């Protein structure tokens, strides 16, 4: 009994010590170093002058092929580090933007987020870099963006790769709508322990290691910053974008060769706490969603990665990168 009481007393102190180790990060991550040099594109969106951060890595053995990597909602361009290194080794030029509202890019307080706006900004970046043809790879929310970009700019998109994209099902059909203010209040409650708990349960099936740890710490670094409320507000606006702007109904219109890379253990779905247990069990079943999406997208191929969750390029890198390089070549 004494041992149990001791554990109960020590556990909050351990959690607190973990929180205290998290480095506070400013709103544009100026005190966080990316794996490659970061540049900025100035864009004017909705009567605001904003800065869009990006990495542009052109290897010495450049094979004249390009690829753009779109990050997910809970991440930024930095988590593509190992993917960038593998692709540049093969001769690909890799462009990795932080979309407006993410990473080192501007965090506007009054903004209507749309996948179309993100796509248009990315097109401006490619125009500035002189890139006329490229492959597009999107992970998670980035998969929704990659799909929208391919639909808007088929003449630019040579190939499309979707890595565990969200939005393969229309959540607004089954999840009660919540206004932006509700999402904002929810985001204000975020901390390291909450982020870790969510990622362990939804991404890694209860597993945890140093690779997973650093991305949780990066997200948590914002939560202890004085201006975290701006980050939380932008995040709330993006939840609304994801819920109200589905792309799955237009998969049939994608014209380029497409590769789906799906970790089949993934059960990620936004809004699970808002529905009954019965409905929750039907959401985010990637083992089925991957097959369904492959049938919906013309000229597409499905690569399933067993025993892997929402982040194949972090959790099962070799199984992710090999089919990707084969597809690109």
Automatic annotation (TrEMBL):
Q: Which UniProt keywords apply?
A: Hydrolase
Q: Which InterPro entries match?
A: AB_hydrolase_1, AB_hydrolase_fold, AB_hydrolase_sf
Q: Name one GO molecular function term.
A: hydrolase activity
One of its Pfam families is Abhydrolase_1
* Domain AB hydrolase-1, residue spans: 66-315
Identify the PANTHER family for this entry: HYDROLASE, PUTATIVE (AFU_ORTHOLOGUE AFUA_2G14860)-RELATED, MONOACYLGLYCEROL LIPASE
Its name, as the record gives it, is Alpha/beta fold hydrolase
């Amino acid at each position: 009994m004494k041992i149990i009481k001791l554990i109960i007393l020590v556990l909050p102190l351990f959690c607190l010590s973990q929180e205290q180790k998290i480095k506070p990060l400013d709103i544009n991550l100026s005190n966080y170093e990316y794996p490659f040099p970061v540049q900025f594109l100035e864009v004017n969106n909705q009567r605001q002058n904003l800065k869009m951060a990006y990495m542009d890595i052109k290897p010495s053995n450049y094979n004249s092929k390009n690829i753009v990597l779109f990050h997910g909602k809970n991440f930024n361009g930095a988590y593509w580090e190992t993917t960038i290194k593998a692709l540049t080794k093969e001769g690909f030029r890799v462009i990795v933007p932080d979309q407006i509202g993410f990473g080192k890019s501007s965090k506007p307080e009054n903004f209507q987020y749309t996948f179309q706006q993100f796509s248009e900004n990315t097109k401006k970046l490619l125009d500035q870099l002189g890139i006329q043809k490229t492959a597009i790879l999107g992970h998670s929310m980035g998969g929704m963006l990659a799909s929208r970009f391919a639909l808007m700019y088929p003449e630019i998109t040579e190939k499309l790769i979707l890595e565990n994209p969200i939005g393969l099902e229309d959540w607004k059909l089954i999840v009660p709508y919540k206004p932006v203010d509700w999402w904002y209040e929810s985001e204000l409650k975020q901390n390291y322990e909450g982020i870790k708990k969510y990622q362990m349960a939804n991404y890694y099936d209860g597993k945890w290691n140093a690779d997973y740890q650093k991305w949780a710490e990066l997200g948590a670094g914002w939560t202890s910053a004085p201006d975290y409320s701006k980050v939380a507000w932008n995040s709330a606006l993006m939840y609304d974008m994801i819920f109200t702007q589905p792309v799955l109904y237009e998969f049939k219109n994608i014209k380029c060769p497409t590769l789906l890379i799906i970790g089949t253990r993934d059960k990620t779905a936004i809004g699970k706490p808002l529905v009954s247990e019965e409905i929750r069990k039907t959401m985010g079943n990637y083992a089925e969603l991957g097959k369904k999406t492959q049938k919906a997208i013309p000229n597409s191929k499905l690569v399933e990665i067993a025993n892997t969750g929402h982040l194949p390029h972090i959790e099962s890198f070799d199984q992710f990168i090999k089919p990707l390089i084969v597809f690109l070549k």
